[in-house]
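Worked example

This section walks through a single chain of length 219. The input is the sequence exactly as stored; nothing has been trimmed or padded.
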Amino acid sequence: MAFSTPDDVQSVRIEPPGIEAFLGVPSGASGLVIFAHGSGSGRFSPRNNRVAAALREAGLATLLVDLLRPDEEQDRRNVFDIDLLADRLVAAKRWVSEVSEASHLPVGYFGASTGAGAALQAAYAEPDVGAVVSRGGRPDLAMQVLPEVRAPTLLLVGSLDGPVIDMNERAFDALACEKRLIIIDGAGHLFEEPGTMDQVIRHATDWFLIHLGSTPGRT
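Given that input, the structure is written out below as tokens.
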């Protein structure tokens, strides 16, 4: 089934580094959430687009960005190159600051799988990031910078995703910022089980609405 771009988003190209994204800015938006997709995924991800649609409905702008160009995706090593992915997120955030309709908005990151590690490393690099949410993520891939991350961080993991729970627990212990780890009962790695993605959406929306617009690290 072909992906249909939602009516409330526009296709944009971020130069440099020449990556594609979907930008949606609802009227009166209070913040912007940039999505860092996991391995083998991108701006067409149905799961992340579902989360993004709910965030826009709640009054948050969204940017779903392909962190790799098509030619770069051919090399699987790039999928796990957290430094590269984090640099692309920082580039996307800085690009947004030049877009008039979203430039004034505080920014948060929503990371899935390897994208969670990139989101946390990018939050370390740009301390004004207001919040981070990880869905079934690998925050441990940014372990070396986690103690210095200031952005309030929410880790969401499925109860059936055993190895990833352990990775998230280690990352949670390393974080020194405001933080929360929620294990969603009955959910696997992709949160495909009935009702589990709804819980992801609820927790993520609440976290971003609470924290975006506040000073990073403030309780």
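What to look for: The longest strand covers residues 19-24.
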